[in-house]
Amino acid sequence: MTNASPTSRETIVNALLALLLLGLPLLAFAMGEPFYITLATRIAVLALAAVGLNIALGLGGLVSFGHAAFFGLGGYAAGILATHAFDGVPLFAGIPGTVSMPVIWLVTMVACGLVALPIGAISLRTAGVYFIMITLAFAQMIYYFAISWPAYGGEDGLSIYVRNEFPGVNTTQPLPFFLICYAVLMAALGLFWLLRGSRFGAALQAARQNATRLSAVGIAPFNIRLVAFIISAMVTGVAGALFADLNKFVSPSMMSWHMSGELIVLIILGGKGRLFGPVAGAMLYVLFEFALGGITERWQFFLGLILLGVVLFARGGLLGLLAGKARHG
Amino acid sequence: MSIALLIEQLLNGLQLGVMLFLMAAGLTLIFGVMGLINLAHGSLYMVGAFACAAVAAATGSFWIGLVASLIAAAAAGAIMEVTVIRRLYERDHLDQVLATFALILIFSEGTRWLFGSFPLYLDIPPLLQGAVPLPGGGQYQLYRLAIIGVGIVVAIGLYFLISRTRLGMRIRAGEADREMIAALGVDIRTLYTVVFALGAALAGLAGALVGALQSVQVGMGEPALILAFVVIVIGGIGSIKGALFGAILVGVVDTMGRFLLPKALALMIPAAQAGPIGAALASMLIYVVMALILAFRPSGLFAAQS
């Protein structure tokens, strides 16, 4: 792929965004302002969740309105495993809980993969509006299940008493925990970049642009989309586990349809299908939330207005503004 | 379990179904004619409920409130269509989802601004208070029966509107080929505004009717909206008949599931566990039904469009 000028400009913008997200908490640490480190961690985790969704939505054109389910599953994986480890009660069949983040992430990815497989297999039989609504409905199903299942707090949610552990890192301090989240985000961005450039990514994007033509060259769009949907769910799930660790709390509201909407909003604010779109979107979103939330209790009203303006008049999002149009739609 | 209790639960399911039909009919009409997915339909439901509660509190009459709810929801719908929705018809569904999601944020916070965070209450009108006896003993709330009646009247009215009137003819023509009817001289922009306002008024009516059964509060539209989505996905998007069938199915399955599943489970496992597990499963039941239907008929039971 030749480096035409908009591409290189996007690379520079991406590098700046990555440095900005890393630099701000370091600066906050130096100034002794842990609150801003937490804010940056929130940006990194939400960006990670949106990077996951961006695989399905940006590359594959699959508008999943139910990714909050995977976000919440990750959160509950972290919460449930930590609770069992804390209480010393085995999960089932003698398997103990754990407070080790890598193990939790692994369990999250397996769980999200297992849930995304049937959801994807049924949802992908449909397209367009049906796909949007059926993914929403599946997420609601899991949401209501989490609310009415009393074993893990039900509607009240589940507290994580001590943040889960990562080998060699003191996760209870804000900065090391931020660095873990940042590293996972960068790894996910690397995965997105690899996928986009791979043969699989080419097929996935072809499935979005012209599914009939893809079938004509002998590749079944369904399988490609299903795999993308599962990978996407796994990445969003890991973000959910980190989000639960960030707040030391998980509740069904992580799975609510509002959350699914927010994840889509992050991508659109930043730029759909762009590598750093979710990062730019999460930065903007958390900053809006923080800045507007400081001025008025009714910040969601203004968020709505801004979002409406972006959808109606500023297609392409922040990256479209900073780095020019995407190379192909 | 007595027969009367079973009949009561069936009627409750029917009442929920009728309420969902009022929501789903507007959604499916708007999708069928304009190809638009409108998440903010739940906000119009909320507008109807708030208008009814506020006007009923001010005038002391539920009936004036009911009329106000129709007017307020239709007006809100028309304004929404002219200012925002009109720009979205040519966009893809993702843009429609986002813009109408933004509208939800605006409507919810705007309503909270106007009315505060505390719920409003709406009394059942004196005419419809009381209960009627059921066969097999027991009684049933008259107001809920009246809601079922309203739903039946609206369903018949919509059928005549769509199949017998000039407006209905235009709506059907708009579903089939919008360029063609524009070329034949029909003012398509006005038609779209009218259809949108009609759908909005039905949602507002549903909100006002349900407002007397529950509290009227911000966020009340969202659960109703998602159930209405399930309804139109089951019924086939764009089909009013599908919306009616899907609404009754969802209403009855949901209500009967919550009533019967815990009891059925109690026959197999200890009652202390059967209650919560049954309740958890019942809350998922309609989504399971939807998934099953879509697995076999991906475009719903009464798919209107190819």
UniProtKB/TrEMBL annotation, chain A:
Location relative to the cell: Cell membrane
KW Glycoprotein (keyword) present: no
Record GO terms (molecular function): branched-chain amino acid transmembrane transporter activity
Stretch forming the signal peptide: none
Record keyword Signal present: no
Alphabetically ordered keywords of this record: Cell membrane, Membrane, Transmembrane, Transmembrane helix
Membrane topology: Multi-pass membrane protein
Membrane spanning stretches: 12-31, 43-63, 70-93, 99-122, 129-152, 175-195, 216-243, 276-295, 301-323
A GO CC annotation given for this chain: plasma membrane
InterPro entries in UniProt: ABC_transp_permease, LivM-like
Pfam families: BPD_transp_2
Protein name: Branched-chain amino acid transport system permease protein
Species of the source: Aminobacter aganoensis
From TrEMBL, chain B:
Subcellular location as annotated: Cell membrane
Main location as per UniProt: membrane
Transmembrane segments: 16-37, 44-64, 70-89, 101-122, 142-162, 190-213, 225-253, 274-296
GO biological process annotation, one example: amino acid transport
GO terms of molecular function: transmembrane transporter activity
Record keywords: Amino-acid transport, Cell membrane, Membrane, Transmembrane, Transmembrane helix, Transport
One Pfam family, short name: BPD_transp_2
GO CC annotation: plasma membrane
CDD domains: TM_PBP1_LivH_like (cd06582)
Topology versus the membrane: Multi-pass membrane protein
PANTHER family linked to this entry: ABC TRANSPORTER ATP-BINDING PROTEIN, BRANCHED-CHAIN AMINO ACID TRANSPORT SYSTEM PERMEASE PROTEIN LIVH
Family the UniProt entry places it in: Belongs to the binding-protein-dependent transport system permease family. LivHM subfamily.
Name the record gives this protein: Branched-chain amino acid transport system permease protein
Annotated source species: Aminobacter aganoensis
